[in-house]
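Service request form, structural biology core

Requester: graduate student, group of Dr. S.
Request type: structure prediction, single chain
Budget code: on file
Notes: please return the result as structure tokens.

Sequence provided:
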Amino acid sequence: DCEFPNPIPLGYIFQAGVWGCDTANQYSGQALGECVVNETNCEPTFVLSGCFPTTPCDFPAIDSCQYDVTDCPTGQMLSGTSCQVKCKSPYMTPLGEAHG
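Core staff response, request fulfilled:
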């Protein structure tokens, strides 16, 4: 049997019997908890992995005449987040058409 780490490492939470990433403190990813054998002392050790601090990403330069980015934050976005970019008229094409 592995004992859970105490204190819980930064970036992780344990709620309702499930490990997760501490999104309230800007961590994202997919938490994974595993019981592994420590090769030094042959004892079981509980290891957490998969959560990373979110970092701000600069929003790329967008042609505001061609794209509608009103659903996106201005300036920067946190890694692991997304927003919807839409084409403005007359750049919209009917469904099924692709232009390169």
